[in-house]
Amino acid sequence: MKILKFGGTSVGSPERMTKLLDIINPNEEQIVVLSAVSGTTNSLVEIANYFLAGDKQKGSECVENLYQKYKTFVVELLPAAEFQEQGNEVIDYHFSFLAGLANDIFTSIEEKVVLAQGELLSTTLYHIYLKSIGVPSVLLPALDFMKTDEDNEPDIPFTTKHLMPLLEQHKDNKLFITQGYICRNSFGEVDNLRRGGSDYTASLLGAAILAEEVQIWTDIDGMHNNDPRIVKGTKPIAQLSFDEAAELAYFGAKILHPQSVFPAQKYKIPVRLLNTMEPSAAGTLITHDSEKGRIKSIAAKDGITAIRIQSSRMLLAYGFLRRVFEVFERYKTPIDMITTSEVAVSLTIDETAHLPQIIEELESFGTVEVDTNHSIVCVVGDFGSEKHGFASRVLEGLKHIPIRMISYGGSNYNVSLLILSEYKTEALRSLHNRLFE
């Protein structure tokens, strides 16, 4: 069985939704994971924010505006009267629920339920569409088998235990439809996967049933060797290892969330990144294998803050770095890059919610300097210790740009460099010319 995930743009209009059958083969065993129709989640976030702020009128207006969009969507997707009626019943049910929230106490629990409505709508409407054209499918409620544990981590054994009987129950069917992004938490409340959203769902399902392959369908033909929004002439990468894909995803390649890679990697499930608008394009295949002796891609991550802690107490001392890291751990703030000398440590973060408290604690160790508006440029490829010249080519490509930090040797797959964000565009283009032209 294969897992096929389609993002919001792939189901963004009735026309696009109907064209999914150009990709989905109803005669092959497949679980199709759908995101919400593009724009819907943003509207639901807006509705939830108004209700949380107590502005019931604005929230209700947003509910009505979104409802009218779905009324038009149903008419175009389901022209036959019988199925249009079914579609209208679905949207009436969901939007009556949303409208009713204006009269109730609204908390973060209700907020999660609101955010789940987009995927529930898109999957149910697509299921009705398939029925209207005579294609058999089974709608599987993700809330019955997607669950997170007390640490908000996905519970894959739970998914296996509860999903496999559902598939067995419908063993005469080949096509299954389910929701991305949404799940239940350890208390049984409606929640979501946050990191990686629907991509994460697809990877988790692939791991849970040991699928043949996970396919992530978006509006770009795989991971490119640079950011196509900034650099001209970028090309899709035919093959990546899981580690390389995770590095690229973490450091700015928007096509895939890094968290989405790990379940497939752990259970050895190949992942393909493919283009809904160009189904015949080869895309990118992600497996355990890495193509040796090549630089694969360049990515960049913005919004980086650099922190330098300088202290003579660090010299020949043990335990110093542990105490520094404990400060970040207390404030649940991840570190991206780190470099050290005998008397100083420099590191970067992209989450600054607790920066004032972190700085205050770090000042007990020594002098603290903070630099904002930086970007991490990450070059991914075969940087194993036996390789000659790759790192020097990277530095040569940036010789005219001031570099604040360099991280090399943490893995065999990347060199990361910290620069001011104002130099990012120039850095990406210069590296592209040096490494790929």
Indicate the CATH architecture of the largest domain.
3-Layer(aba) Sandwich
| Count of discrete domains | 2
Shape: globular
Q: Can you list the strand order of the major beta sheet?
A: 3-4-2-1-7-9-10-8
- CATH topology term of the largest domain: Carbamate kinase
Q: Quick one: CATH class of the largest domain?
A: Alpha Beta
Largest sheet: 8 strands, mixed
CATH superfamily label of the largest domain: Acetylglutamate kinase-like
Q: How would you characterize the overall build of this protein?
A:
- The chain has 437 residues and is α/β, with parallel strands linked by helices.
- The chain folds into two domains: 2-218, 3-Layer(aba) Sandwich (Carbamate kinase); 295-436, VC0802-like, CATH 3.30.2130.
- 38% of the residues lie in helices and 21% in strands.
- It has helices at residues 14-18, 40-52, 56-77, 81-100, 108-132, 156-169, 197-209, 242-250, 261-266, 320-330, 355-362, 390-397, 424-435; strands at residues 2-6, 30-34, 138-140, 175-179, 182-184, 190-192, 213-218, 239-241, 271-275, 284-287, 295-310, 338-340, 344-349, 367-381, 405-408, 414-420.
- The protein has an eight-stranded mixed beta sheet, with helices on both faces. The chain has a six-stranded antiparallel beta sheet with strand order 12-13-11-14-16-15, with helices on both faces. The protein has a two-stranded antiparallel ribbon with strand order 5-6.
- Helix 3 runs antiparallel to helix 4 and helix 12 (390-397) crosses helix 13 (424-435).
- The longest helix has 25 residues, at 108-132.
- The mean pLDDT is 93.
